[in-house]
Every structure is written in C-alpha cells, then in structure tokens.
What we know:
By secondary structure, the chain is mostly beta strands.
Amino acid sequence: MKKRILALLLAGLITASFASCVASGDQENPDNDTEAEQTQGESTTPDDGTESTPDVTEWTSVDETVFTVSQVSLREDPDTSGDIVKALAKETQLHRTRVSENWSYVETTSGEKGYVSNRYITSVNILGTDFTTIAGGEKIMYATDVVNVRLYPSADDFSDKKGSYSKDDEVTVVATNGKWYRVKFKTNSDGSVEYYYVNASYLSEEKGGTSIDMSQYESLFAPLTEEKVMYADGKVNIRTSPVVTEDGSNLITTLKSGAKVTVTKEGTVDGQKWYYAKAEIAPEKEGDPSKKVEGYITASYLTDETSPESMTLDELIVRYPTFSKLTKTVYVVKDKSLKVRSTPEYLEDDSNYVDTL
C-alpha cells in the first residue's frame, strides 16, 4: 500500500513539473511561428546594395534637379522590395519634388515617376551643364598647390580622383561654374581628350600665385529668408569671390542687361554689399541648352525692377530664356479677346497689362 501511495505521489510531481515547463515556454514564445515569420519577412539582400530602411514618416517638399551617381532602380514605393518602374543608368538627370531621410520622389525627363534611394543620387550637377565656356575657348592657369583632378565637380566619394597637378603646373581651363573649373587633363594617343574638374580655389592666373581662401567669406554672407528675383541693371559680372580683381581671374561670365537672377545670400565685404545669386544663360545658338551659373554680384548692379517695357527684344529673351525669336502671323478667334502683357505671367494687380486685342 505504501509503495502504491509513493508511486502516485511521484507521478503527480512529474506531471506538475512538465506542466510548469510548458507554461514557462508559452510565456517566452507564445506563437512558435513568430520568430520564423519575422526572419522570413526581412530583406537579407536589399536591391541596389542599400541597407534595409525604416518606414518613411516625414517628407519635405522640394523643387530641384538631381543626378544618379550609379545605376539604380526607380521604384513604385519607397522600399527596396517595391516594384521596379525603370532601371536608371548612371548620370541620369531627374526632377526631385519630395525627399525623406532615405528616399526621394522623382520624375524622369521622359515622365516616369517613382522613388530612388538617396544613396545613389546627388544635387551636384555631375553632367556639367551649368558650366560656362571660358572667353576665347580656353586659357592657361596655374596650380597654387597640389590639387586633385576629379571625375565630377565635387569632392564627394562618388567623384573619383583621375590624377593631380603639382604646384605651379600649367592647367588648361575650358569652362567654369564659379566653384569648379573644367580642364583639359589629358590628350590620348588617338587624339581624344579627357576633360575633368578642378576646384577653382586652387588655380591662379599667375604662376606662383596663392589660393583663394573662400572660407574667409562664409561668415560674411547670410542666406535670405526667402530667395528673391532681381535683374541685371546693365552688363553685370558674376564672380567666384566677392572681390573685384584687376586681372579678372575670378570672373565667371558677364550677364547681359535685363538678365534675371535669383539671389540666395547677401553680405558686405570691405564696406561693399554683395549678393550671391544664380542665373540662367541663354544658349549661344539655336538648339543648345541654356546654362546655369552661380556666384557673387555687386549689389548695386542688380535691381528689383520688373517692368521690361523699355527693353529690347534681345534683352527680353535674355530675361526669359525659354523663349526664342519667332516671326509668325496669328489671329484672334472671333468673339474672343486677348490681353497683351509685358511679361509672360499673370499678376494679381494686372501691372504688366499693356493692351487688349
């Protein structure tokens, strides 16, 4: 009898111990499939080489041009698992309208829209379409120190080093955007020429010259609360630094009277007020693209005046580079009237109204 009671007690203890273990296991992992499902849902090899990114929660509206620095996928959603709209080649130009920490919403020149990873795009104009040709086609300048020659007008990692110049080396400059020079770096045996980029701060008009330390001006200029449009009051020089040099070594280009500029910063250097502005240069011949430049302009040579009535047709075209000369007869539809305006825009106060047809 005693043996039977001991056996029953032992069986009860074993059963209780087993139940306790099962209960403990359920608390640590109530759903035995959860861990496996989470692991399966993670992207172990994200497309385009990007790391897995968190859900996008904050977007900022922008209106700017960006470029791809490598091949990347345009996707329907801001996620590496999103469906691919199109494979974008390296050096593709895009229009960006929204940006988050990891993704950008863009549109291609052919109209496709979608998301691209920020790791593979840049706002640096790597195509160099914002460069202006040097007067005369080219000029010789000199390296003021050891300076790197880069694939693109940028010192970022995506801009590979193609070589370098030593101090006082001759450099053949062919174009500039104010911050960088496009240079004729190498002529190959087959006659082809390799053009790359050098930081403008490290070249001088004279052998043995010194570098322009642009950092000395940074604290003197402050961004405007809101960018403003102004116009060249006569011919205006736009420069790489807010200094008028006797030899013109910091001259980027000369804007024609009436040229429209967008002022982004203002400051005072040696008692003189300067603006930092962006401008669009009309193409030299039909079919060529317009060029964008930016640099410093003496404030007294810009005006807020928006009335172009006294400007010539050529000056108007400079102000509105999307227009070109055209001789064509058109007719007003019967029972309709047209307002003639001095500028291609609708103003609330109708101040640009000229006549009615």
